Every structure is written in C-alpha cells, then in structure tokens.
Amino acid sequence: MPEGHSIRRLADQWEKYVGQQFLLASPQGRFGTQAALLSAKRLISTDAHGKHLFLEFEGKNFIHIHLGLYGAFRWHHGTSTPAVRGAVRLRAVGDNVTVDLSGPTVCEVLDENGKSAIHARLGVDPLRSEDSIENLLPWLKQSSWPIGKTLLEQSKIAGIGNVYRAEILFLLGLNPHRLSSDLSEDEWREVWAMSRILLEAGVRHKGRIFTTAEELPKPANLPLETKFSGRTYVYKRTGEPCVVCSTAVLQQELASRTLYWCPTCQA
DNA sequence: GTAGGATGCTAAC
DNA sequence: TTAGCCTCCTACG
Fold this sequence. Notes:
By secondary structure, this protein is of the alpha+beta class. It has helices at 4-15, 32-38, 112-120, 137-141, 147-150, 162-171, 185-204; strands at 21-25, 41-49, 52-57, 61-66, 72-77, 88-93, 97-102, 106-110, 250-254, 257-261. Strands 5-7-6-1-2-3-4-8 form an 8-stranded antiparallel sheet. A hairpin with a 3-residue loop joins β6 and β7 (97-102). It binds a DNA duplex (13 and 13 nucleotides) through α6.
C-alpha cells in the first residue's frame, strides 16, 4: 500500500489526534530508547512528504517513519488496549486509540535540522499543493533518464511508486523508455497533473489504488462501455489484453522494478 | 492451507 | 551489489 497517497492518508488520520498525549512503547524493542524519550508528550503536528511521514511531539521532536514495502499501521479504536500482534516496533496509546506500527524501513526521532535534511533530499510531491513541476523542468530537459526511471526517483518527484508509475504512463500513452529530455514541457505538465489526480484519488479511496474508477480520466481511444475487471489498467496484468487495443500487456524490469505497459498504446 | 512475490528503502559488504 | 525488514495479498492446490 505505501505509495505517497497512503502516507498522506496516514498523516490525515494522525492529524485528528493533534493535542493528545500518547504513551509510546516498543514491544519489539527496536525503538525502545527513543520511545521512552518521547512518551507522554503531546502530538503537535503531522507532515507527509512523498513516502515519508513525520509526527511532531512536544519539544520539536519528530518521529520520522518510512514504511518501506512491508511497513503498516494498525489502528485500534476504543479505550481497551489489545494484545500485541506480530513484531510491533512502535505502540502509541492515546485516550481513545491504540496505534501499532510494524515493519517500517525507518522509524527514528529527528530534530528540526534532521527533518529539514529529509525534505532537502526529496523532490516535488504531487500531493503537496504548494509544489509544482515548473522548477524541475530545466533538469528534466537535460535528463537522459527514461521517464519510467524518473517517475520513481524520489529526489526529483516524491511519492510515486511502482503502481502509479505504470498507470500514469499508460493513461497518458507514454512509452516508459522515452528519455525525460524528449518530452515537451507540456507533456511533463500532463504527467504532473495526472500524478496529482491519481494520487488524490488514492487518498479518497481510503488508500486503495483504483485507477480505473469511474470518475477518473480515461485512456485515449477507450472503447465505449468498456467493463473493467480490475482496479488497474496495466499494473500486474502481464499477458492480459489491453483494455484499449487488446495487445498483450508486457512485463519488463526498469529501474530495478517490474514495469507493466502496453507496447501498442504506449508505442 | 501454503508458498511466494511485492505498492521500497536502508545498511552492510 | 545484496540482504534484510517481517506483513499482506494472490495464486495455486
């Protein structure tokens, strides 16, 4: 689940508890010392940038979390504290909620400078309304990276993962191997706009990626009244007929991740 | 019921 | 470059 939309959603969920005190513990042990340090402090604010989540506690201390591939939060509403299930790195107990975090790639406490350093190495985020792709255009114009690689590069564009990469490129009919410098500025603006639309939809759909949803933009030349059997157009659909042209969807490695695409629609 | 891959990154080598 | 994280989902039987 954890592409940028999931992290934004988590920040929104935590936002409801701003002002509350949390008792922090690390049942698994790996976050024990730092949990003790911040335990019983009030939650001050939340922030999400790309796939990184920040929870600010009193004293300008930030818990920085990156879920990686497996990481997950489990929310238990109510006053009873449930038994720990699995390897829980961080348990936060508030007035009316218990939140368990397991399997993150990163869970650490940072000060303001540490947080700034993370922001500094992340690119523009389609879910941060103040961000735009305009300042990145000069870099894109001279980049020889294929766009399928650029979209996953968190230091340039933050928040897009492997599912959204495949779906964004398919919806716009872009060949993933085209060079970043080969796209016009307007094409990059379209990529940005589509990224925004899809990630925002992911937040609305409770963190589920559902790019074929009715209200979303459709690929060009989509036959009328097409019925979809899945939540994505090409992601994880190797060998299945493309919904537009019936060509078999291809699978191929690009930037160390499995890319799915239609060689006809994305010629 | 079980096996295996994955929406991703870090740290060790 | 590779192992590790340690969970969830899907495909298979």
